[in-house]
């Protein structure tokens, strides 16, 4: 007898229930069921803060837990109804973060979906009667979302036969509300995991305020309330709405982004439009350079397709061109939480402020910047360690730094530093980075590179140094714990530099309106002075701070601060008579104006311009004459030296400052303008000559260029019969003087002379001085500037057109005046009131400029 055979059927099972099983939710979130309330809190608050930041609003978030569940409310713009509908489609992933590389919270792309699934699993798996989809064994708890004028009521059931979710989505009309309110049914939330669950929930909520200085947060756990006010509502950080940098992307990331746009139906979107969305590439000039390098001008994104994907080679070439035309983003631009904010948070939980330590470590690799901040404090009254960790301003439910090079993770590092779980300390560790990789689908553990791991280790060791030393003593001496208070809060000897380093960042932020405005070096000094003097017990030397401590801090920490220094000289263009003080802001503005002038359309001109525009060196001046001292301007003006030789003249008070070096670096390096130097024949004059092209502690040159030494040199002094004077090098070693002279190009004969004598430019009589300078200029081929034929031709045509237009204007004016006659124009009765009102909205203008606008406006109205 033949045995019966089983003929297997092939079943197709929907994957839509992946979000409705405990196993899959654990895999997607990276957390077990007991921690899901914390996941809900984290995802909802992440979304709330992001929404506020995108709208340019300081976030205000309220969390409430009661017997029925959890609700989170924000003051943002409100979640769109379309987004809610997309969230309820479990066949797709919905995210405005996942395809972009930027420092943003979360970026999983399925947060709300997992929350809906958790609520379903926790509440009991409501099964649908196959014969009647509306009959359930027990009623489900609804999820409510309020936004704008709508309340969305969402119920989720499961059809076990079809293996699909059955979703009910109703919308009720409500009074208009600001922001978004999400209510999630969770009946056993307050009883799950007992008191430990409550404490962890409250701490995670509070941790948001620890790493978000602009956040106002309130948490209500069954009547137990917690409210944290912001330390800086206008705290600057990289916003979700800020353009991302191409340097943060790898080819596979850009490939993903382009595919996302194509899948979204944007096949007609051009490559130029794509490029324009990136930081540093918003200008048409930069975009054209990228498109020219790739041959993708006017090409749509669809043109990048190859088979069922994209042309990998083209995408790689496009990304390389985008990086070439854009600048790297400085780490500080990502956002720095700062020591002052952490200090206030540590103080709020009872830490001794003299035990407080803070360190910031910054760096970049592969074009990706990062900021790591750590802080430590001793809380005598506490019994356990409090650990605050986070990545990109979102606190972690569990320690995300599980791999730190040879230490095996943060837990091992903390133990090695004697920061045990039962110690009365607070430790905070936060990392900001636009490209964060994770080891799990739930993104609960980060992968950090060797440099970042080294910085974490160094920073933790630094902030815990005093505590670690004390705890090691206690291990050796049983009675040492009695001296812990003295060891931790005693006033330690602090150097001026250490005290300055403690307060420098806060002082700069205070002086610069949180980095929004330029700050003078002395403003930073005043903001830091009280702290430094209190910590050291010494008076602060102003010059030492502004000229050494502040530049040293900027260099060591590689910060891109907008610190400006007073002008110590002037730069004068010939013919235009434009005078630029050699201060940080003035030079920066001048260079920006030159760059803007360079890209001005060639056909543009003003009728009133008498001359062809000459801003900047192009077609205007052929060299820069640098003189190490002020005071010769009147002499040069009297003989028209600048005009006769088309020279720009730069003069300084002694050593060249950073602003003058920046100006020379740009004009000589980018516009190929020769630099000619006049200086005294002494050690300081030769040092100034050398400093114009050599890197210093405060300025590193970007471009290569040559500096021509016009003198004085020994042969000049002898040939011109100039009077010398004795020189004294007080407190300087003779060998050091000789070394300095050798470094700056002095010959053996000059060194022998300069050890005892020096010669100033002032030793010249005025006429002899000018004659000598002109001989030097001619010897170096300096003559009048005559532009190329194309420029001359265009300028000539422009001037002829201008003459014709001017004739027409003169004729029209004469005719209009003749028709008007002597009869005066009617003047409005409320003219003064109109001028005053206009000045309130245009306060940067003079009254007559405003009056001109009103007169033109009235004329157009009557015409």
Protein architecture, described:
There is one protein chain. It contains 29 helices and 27 strands. The strands form eight sheets. The chain has a six-stranded mixed β-sheet with strand order 5-6-2-1-7-8. The N and C termini lie far apart (111 Å). Mean pLDDT is 83; it is low at 126-139 and 599-613.
Strand order of the largest sheet: 5-6-2-1-7-8
Tell how many strands the DSSP assignment holds.
27
Low confidence ranges? 126-139, 599-613
Number of helices: 29
Q: Quick check: average pLDDT?
A: 83
> Structural class, judged by helices and strands?
alpha+beta
Distance between the termini: 111 Å
Helix content: 40-55%
The coarse overall form would be: globular
> Main sheet?
6 strands, mixed
Task: Write a brief caption for the model.
The protein is α+β, with helices and mostly antiparallel strands.
Topology, please?
Layout: H1 22-29, H2 36-54, E1 60-66, E2 69-74, H3 81-87, H4 111-123, E3 128-129, E4 132-136, E5 143-159, E6 164-185, H5 194-210, E7 216-221, E8 224-228, H6 251-263, H7 271-275, H8 284-294, E9 305-306, E10 309-310, H9 312-324, H10 339-348, E11 357-365, E12 368-378, E13 386-391, E14 394-395, H11 410-416, E15 425-432, E16 437-438, E17 446-447, H12 450-463, H13 465-476, H14 484-489, H15 496-511, E18 519-520, H16 521-536, H17 542-557, E19 563-564, E20 569-572, E21 579-581, H18 584-598, E22 623-627, H19 633-638, H20 641-645, E23 647-652, H21 658-671, E24 675-678, H22 683-691, E25 707-711, H23 714-720, E26 725-726, H24 734-743, H25 748-754, E27 757-758, H26 766-779, H27 789-820, H28 831-841, H29 847-862
Parallel strand pairs: 1-7, 13-15, 18-19, 22-23, 22-24, 24-25
Antiparallel strand pairs: 1-2, 2-6, 3-4, 5-6, 7-8, 9-10, 11-12, 12-15, 13-14, 16-17, 20-21, 20-23, 26-27
Helix pairs in contact: 1-4, 2-4, 2-5, 8-9, 15-16, 15-17, 16-17, 18-21, 22-24, 28-29
């Amino acid at each position: 007898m033949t045995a019966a055979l089983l003929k297997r059927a092939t079943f197709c099972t929907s994957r839509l229930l992946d979000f409705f099983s405990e196993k899959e939710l654990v895999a997607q979130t990276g957390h077990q069921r007991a921690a899901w309330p914390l996941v809900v809190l984290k995802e909802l608050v992440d979304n709330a803060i992001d929404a506020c930041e995108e709208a340019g609003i300081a976030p205000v978030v309220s969390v409430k837990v009661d017997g029925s569940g959890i609700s989170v409310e924000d003051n943002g713009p409100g979640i769109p109804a379309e987004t809610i509908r997309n969230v309820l489609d479990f066949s797709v992933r919905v995210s405005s973060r996942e395809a972009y590389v930027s420092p943003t919270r979360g970026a999983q792309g399925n947060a709300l979906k997992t929350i809906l699934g958790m609520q379903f699993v926790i509440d009991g798996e409501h099964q649908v009667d196959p014969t009647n989809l509306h009959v359930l064994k027990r009623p489900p708890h609804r999820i409510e979302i309020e936004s704008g004028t709508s309340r969305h009521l969402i119920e989720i059931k499961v059809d076990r036969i079809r293996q699909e979710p059955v979703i009910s989505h109703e919308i009720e009309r409500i009074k208009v509300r600001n922001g978004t309110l999400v209510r999630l049914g969770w009946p056993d939330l307050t009883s799950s995991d007992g008191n430990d669950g409550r404490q962890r929930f409250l701490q995670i909520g509070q941790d948001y305020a620890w790493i978000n200085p602009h956040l106002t947060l309130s948490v209500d756990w069954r009547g137990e309330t917690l409210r944290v006010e912001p330390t800086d509502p206008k705290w600057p950080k990289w916003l979700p709405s800020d353009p991302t940098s191409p340097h943060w992307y790898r080819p596979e990331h850009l490939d993903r982004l382009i595919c996302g746009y194509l899948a979204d139906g944007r096949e007609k979107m051009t490559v130029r439009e794509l490029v324009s969305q990136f930081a540093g590439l918003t200008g048409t000039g930069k975009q054209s350079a990228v498109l020219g390098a790739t041959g993708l001008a006017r090409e749509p994104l669809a043109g990048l397709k190859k088979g069922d994907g994209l042309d990998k080679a083209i995408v790689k070439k496009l990304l390389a061109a985008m990086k070439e035309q854009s600048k790297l983003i400085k780490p500080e631009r990502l956002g720095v939480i700062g020591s002052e904010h952490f200090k206030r948070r540590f103080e709020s939980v009872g830490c001794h402020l003299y035990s407080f330590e803070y360190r910031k470590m910054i760096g970049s690799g592969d074009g990706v910047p990062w900021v790591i901040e750590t802080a430590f404090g001793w809380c005598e009254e506490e019994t356990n360690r409090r650990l605050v960790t986070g990545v990109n301003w979102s606190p972690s439910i569990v320690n995300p730094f599980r791999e730190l090079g040879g230490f095996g993770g943060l837990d091992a590092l903390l133990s090695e530093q004697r920061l045990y779980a039962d110690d009365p300390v607070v430790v905070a560790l936060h990392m900001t980075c636009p490209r964060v990789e994770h080891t799990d689908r739930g993104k609960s553990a980060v992968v950090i590179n060797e440099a970042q791991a080294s910085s974490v280790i160094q920073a933790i060791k630094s902030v815990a140094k005093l505590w670690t030393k004390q705890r090691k003593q206690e291990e050796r001496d049983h009675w040492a714990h009695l001296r812990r208070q003295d060891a931790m809060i005693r006033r330690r000897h602090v150097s001026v530099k250490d005290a300055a380093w403690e307060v420098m960042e806060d002082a700069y932020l205070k002086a610069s309106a949180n980095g929004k405005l330029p700050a003078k070096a002395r403003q930073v000094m005043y903001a830091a002075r009280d702290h430094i003097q209190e910590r050291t017990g010494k008076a602060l030397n102003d010059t030492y701070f502004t000229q050494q401590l502040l530049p040293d801090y900027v260099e060591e920490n590689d910060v891109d601060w907008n610190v400006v220094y007073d002008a110590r000289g002037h730069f004068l263009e010939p013919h235009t008579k434009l005078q630029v003080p050699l201060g940080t802001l003035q030079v920066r503005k001048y260079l920006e104006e030159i760059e803007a002038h360079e890209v001005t359309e060639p056909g543009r001109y003003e009728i009133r311009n008498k001359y062809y525009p000459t801003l900047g060196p192009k077609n205007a001046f052929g060299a820069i004459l640098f003189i190490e001292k002020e005071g010769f301007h009147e002499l040069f003006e009297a003989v028209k030296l600048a005009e006769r030789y088309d020279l720009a003249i730069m003069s300084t008070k002694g050593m060249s400052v950073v602003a003058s070096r920046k100006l020379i670096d740009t004009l000589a390096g980018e516009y190929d303008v020769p630099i000619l130097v006049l200086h005294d024949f002494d050690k300081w004059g030769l040092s100034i000559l050398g400093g114009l092209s050599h890197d210093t502690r405060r300025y590193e040159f970007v471009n290569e260029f040559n500096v021509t030494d016009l003198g004085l040199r020994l042969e000049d002094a002898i040939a011109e019969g100039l009077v010398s004077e004795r020189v004294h090098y007080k407190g300087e070693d003779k060998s050091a003087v000789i070394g300095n002279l050798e470094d700056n190009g002095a010959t053996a004969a000059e060194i022998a002379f300069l050890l005892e004598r020096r010669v100033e430019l002032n030793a010249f009589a005025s006429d002899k001085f000018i004659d000598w300078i002109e001989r030097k200029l001619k010897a170096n081929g300096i003559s009048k500037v005559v532009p190329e034929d194309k420029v001359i031709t265009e300028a000539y045509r422009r001037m002829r057109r201008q003459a014709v237009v001017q004739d027409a204007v003169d004729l029209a004016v004469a005719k209009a005046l003749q028709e008007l006659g002597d009869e005066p124009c009617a003047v409005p009765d409320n003219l003064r009131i109109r001028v005053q009102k206009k000045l309130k909205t245009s306060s940067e203008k003079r009254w007559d400029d405003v009056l001109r606008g009103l007169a033109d406006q009235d004329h157009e109205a009557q015409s």
